[in-house]
Design goal:
Blueprint (H helix, E strand, L loop, with lengths): L4 E4 L8 H8 L6 H22 L6 E7 L5 E3 L5 E10 L5 E4 L5 E5 L2 E5 L16 E7 L8 H16 L12 H8 L8
Antiparallel strand pairs: 1-2, 2-8, 3-7, 4-5, 4-8, 6-7
Helix pairs in contact: 1-3, 2-3, 3-4
Length: about 190
C-alpha cells in the first residue's frame, strides 16, 4: 500500500483564530500575531490527526493499493459518503468499480472498504497503484467533539506560551491533553 494523498484539504480549521486567542489570552489583532496563532492551530491539528489516524474537518483523500481485494483498509476516519473505486484491469485500462459492489465498515482497527463474497473481484494489472480509492473523511467543524477541540486549544496555548523558550523534555502539555484524546485512540488488537 502506498502512502495516502490529500486531494482536497479542509476548508476550515477545527478551532477558530478567535477561540485560540481567547485560550491564549491574546486581545490584540496584529496580522503577524494572527499568522503565528494560525500556524500553531495547524501544527496542533496535524499532530492530533497523526496521533489518532483520523481526519478532523471534512477533507478528501486517495489511497492506492496493488490489488483489488475483499478488504481495503482506509487510512483516515471517519469516512462519509460513498468512496469512488477505480482500478486498472488485466489489460491496464482504468475502470470504475460499481458502488453497489462494496460497503464501508468500521472495526477496532479503523475503517475499511469491504467487498462481499458474492461479488466477483476483477483481476487487476500488476502495478503498485492498480486500485485507487478516493474518499471523504472528517466532519464539519461544528461537529468535532468538544474534547478534541479543547485538546487543540491546550496545545496551541502551550506552543504560544513556550514559543521562545528552550524546552527540556519534561515540559509538555501531556496531562490534560492525553486525557482529552485518550477516548479517541484506536484499540490495539
Amino acid at each position: 500500500m502506498l502512502a495516502p494523498r490529500l486531494v482536497t484539504p479542509p476548508a476550515t480549521r477545527p478551532v477558530s483564530l478567535e477561540e485560540a486567542k481567547v485560550q491564549c489570552r491574546i486581545d490584540v489583532s496584529e496580522a503577524i500575531e494572527n499568522a503565528i496563532i494560525e500556524g500553531y492551530i495547524d501544527a496542533a491539528t496535524q499532530q492530533l490527526e497523526k496521533i489518532l489516524d483520523l481526519a478532523l474537518v471534512t477533507q478528501t483523500w486517495e489511497q492506492d493499493f496493488a490489488t483489488l481485494c475483499r478488504q481495503l483498509r482506509l487510512p483516515k476516519a471517519p469516512v462519509s459518503g460513498t468512496p469512488t473505486v477505480k482500478y486498472y484491469d488485466a489489460q491496464n485500462v482504468e475502470q470504475t468499480f460499481a458502488p453497489a459492489n462494496y460497503r464501508i465498515l468500521t472495526d477496532l482497527e479503523g475503517t475499511y472498504l469491504s467487498i462481499p463474497p458474492e461479488v466477483d473481484v476483477p483481476e487487476t494489472f500488476a502495478r503498485p497503484d492498480a486500485v485507487t480509492v478516493q474518499f471523504t473523511a472528517g466532519a464539519p467543524a461544528d461537529e468535532i467533539p468538544a474534547s478534541l477541540k479543547t485538546a487543540i486549544l491546550l496545545h496551541v496555548a502551550f506552543l504560544y506560551q513556550f514559543r521562545e523558550s528552550s524546552l527540556d523534555a519534561s515540559v509538555s502539555p501531556t496531562g490534560a491533553y492525553e486525557s482529552l484524546v485518550w477516548p479517541f485512540k484506536r484499540t490495539e488488537v
